[in-house]
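Entry 0007
Protein: Lipopolysaccharide-assembly
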Amino acid sequence: MNNNKSRQFLKYTGALRVLLFVFPILFLVSCGVYTFKDVSIDYTKIKTIKIGYFENKARYNNPLLSPRLTDQFTQKVASYTKLTRTTNDDAHYQVQGYISTYNVSTSGVAQQKAATNRLTVGAHIIFKDIVNDKTNEFDVSRDFDFSANLSLQEAEGRLLDEVVKNLSDEIFNRIFSNW
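Output (structure tokens):
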């Protein structure tokens, strides 16, 4: 009888351990709380990067977006790579681009009036790998919902940090994490 209880206890603790290990992983993946920080750079060949200013060419110009996006991306490169930033045109990697989209649209309606608005922000990026003679152009875009009770200026004040972080992360991951 005592032996059966020991076996049941071991089965129970084994199952509990599996649940305690698997559940957090499933939770993190399903909630989108994950990052891709595995940077794929051959540091024996690639040592420098030139990052251009991300000019705002969208129809609507948020004056804070360009400098904040450029700064955030530059800081991310400095934090997650060993590349040395330079202003020389012979840098091994060269990143330039511009904000191409900044639009507001209605995304939700309640009682025949707008309840939720959506700010769509996009950028066009040109990435040059001088060492391997490759150029990659791509677009990134993100949507940010906000209450229709807010003016655009109020929404921008609340969303700017999130907009800058998400766009910067997207650009970084497209360039350095090969996805």
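Curator remark: Confidence is low (pLDDT under 50) at residues 25-36. The CA atoms of residues 120 and 143 lie 4 Å apart.
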